[in-house]
Amino acid sequence: MTTLSMVIDGMVASREWDAATLSRLQYWYGVFGSRDIANITPDEVDTALVSLAKRGKLKPTRGGQCTSSGESLAPSSFNRYITQLQSIYRY
Q1: Residue 33 carries which DSSP code?
Q2: What pairs with residue 36 in β-bridges?
Q3: Taking residues 28-34, what's their average pLDDT?
Q4: Tens digits of per-residue pLDDT, 33-63?
Q5: Are 89 and 8 in contact (CB under 8 A)?
Q6: Quick one: angle between helices 19-32 and 75-90, nearest 10?
Q7: Are 87 and 62 in contact (CB under 8 A)?
Q8: What DSSP designation does 34 have?
Q9: Is the pTM of this model over 0.85?
Q10: 85: number of CA atoms within 13 Å, CB side?
Q11: CB atoms < 10 A from the CB of 61, how many?
Q12: N or C: at which end does the chain have fewer Cβ atoms within 10 angstroms?
């Protein structure tokens, strides 16, 4: 069984990534990390994207934590999360 977290760990180890990409990878790691990558359904991805849209933009706080800024994600940012998931599957 190959989990999503195993694939993400392999991607991260394969080269250096910018902070924004690592943040998007961390989102998918948190949502589906322990799941078998072959068993993640499109409906589950849609549910995760709805959750991401509801969460909105994050702002950093002291101690390395993040909280919701109350702002919506820009459409381009939302698309980057989708594209990042696609890149995980391509990897």
Answers
A1: T
A2: 3
A3: 94
A4: 999 999 999 999 999 999 999 888 777 777 7
A5: no
A6: 70
A7: no
A8: T
A9: yes
A10: 21
A11: 9
A12: N
DSSP 79: H
CA geometry: angle at 17 spanning 33 and 29, to 5°? Answer: 10
Q: How far is CA 74 from CA 37, 65, 81, in A?
A: 27, 21, 11
Q: Which residue has the tokens 């950093």?
A: 60
Calculate helix-pair angle for 42-55, 75-90, nearest 10 degrees. Answer: 140
Quick one: how far is CA 37 from the chain centroid? 14
Tokens encoding 27? 């989102």
Phi-psi region of 73 (alpha: psi -120 to 50; beta: other; left: phi over 0): beta
Structural element, H or E, at residue 64? none
Would you state the structure tokens that stand for residue 8, as one six-digit string?
């993400």
Q: Give whole-number Cα distances, 37 to 40, 42, 49, 70, 72, in Å.
A: 6, 12, 17, 31, 28
Amino acid sitting at position 63: G
